[in-house]
Amino acid sequence: MTRRRSTLTPGKALLRLLLAAVLAGTAGVTVVNVLGQPVAGPTRAYTAEFTDASGVQGDTQVRVRGLPVGKVDAVRVVRRGGQSLAEVDFRVQHRFAVTEHSRVAVRFAALTGLRYLELIDPVDAESDGPPARIVTHLPTAMTLPSLDVTTLFNGMQPVLATLSPEQINTFTDNVATLLSGDGDGVGPMLASIRTLTEFVTDRQSVIATLMNNLSALSEATGGRSRELIQLIDWANRPIDAAMQVLDEFRKSALYGPEFTGALARLLGNLGLRRGADLDDGLDRALTNFNDSIDGFKMVPVVWENIGPPSQAGDIVPCSRGPAQLPATMDVLLGGQRVVLCNP
């Protein structure tokens, strides 16, 4: 039994190639149409200056509270005041107006480099009425530049060396989610901080470095990052206080249950037991003290009955005094008189 081989003829190969090209072209046209979709309704043109507009390009969306209301027309580099600036031309629906109290910020659409412009505090003509004065050229004082992600990892290279690429990507995604204004990103962000400090010995230093980096990002991006810095600062306070009283924990372990247990046994052996009568103990102590005073009072009497010490060569006196013998009776030994002591 033989199997038939399926042969691919040049005609079939060309047909498949043409079909793949048509599908790719259709998908590309769809994406271009979506990205280049014109803004609905009449628009107003603005120009904004940024110190950094990384990720912003033509057809980048302009949003208000997350909803698309405009498009970026062009991005170019200009030289003003001795520094290079990114000048961005964009259009916004006529309904929303930029005033002197408004701001334009570059926000994350994805960490891959995609950004969008966000209008902060614009005047809504439908709800607020027509604005008194519209600002069409926004200087750098009215804009918030693009975020430099490398700022987040300054000084943390030893910590990042212990993490896998997946963990680093998760951490940066959580930072981007929070900085983009998503309130649900607080929990994952704190979980990522815990992962960063899980295997380090000096957690205080790592958290301090991370707080400094996030503070720098906060100055550049604004938005929810300020709340994040405040949240981490609150979490850092008990850690900082614990580091300052770290020696007290050692003392607590040293003078803990083992020490207090031995001290309790010692006090019990001294008579200070639970349920002891304090009044009875004081009476005994005072009675013993009075007896001691009475004993000291007897010292002079005893001292008076003690004779002077004997001199060298003197006969040792009897401890209970000499025996009283009859006057006519003497005990002689070797021609010398012998003194007999009381038994």
From TrEMBL:
A GO cellular component annotation in the UniProt record: extracellular region
InterPro entries the UniProt entry points to: Mce/MlaD, Mce_C, MlaD_Phospholipid_Transporter
Taxonomic superkingdom: Bacteria
Gene Ontology process terms (BP): biological process involved in interaction with host
Any coiled-coil regions, as ranges: none
Pfam families assigned: Mce4_CUP1, MlaD
Signal peptide (residue range): none
Cross-referenced PANTHER family: INTERMEMBRANE PHOSPHOLIPID TRANSPORT SYSTEM BINDING PROTEIN MLAD-RELATED, MCE-FAMILY PROTEIN MCE1B
Full protein name: Mammalian cell entry protein
UniProt source species: Mycolicibacterium fallax
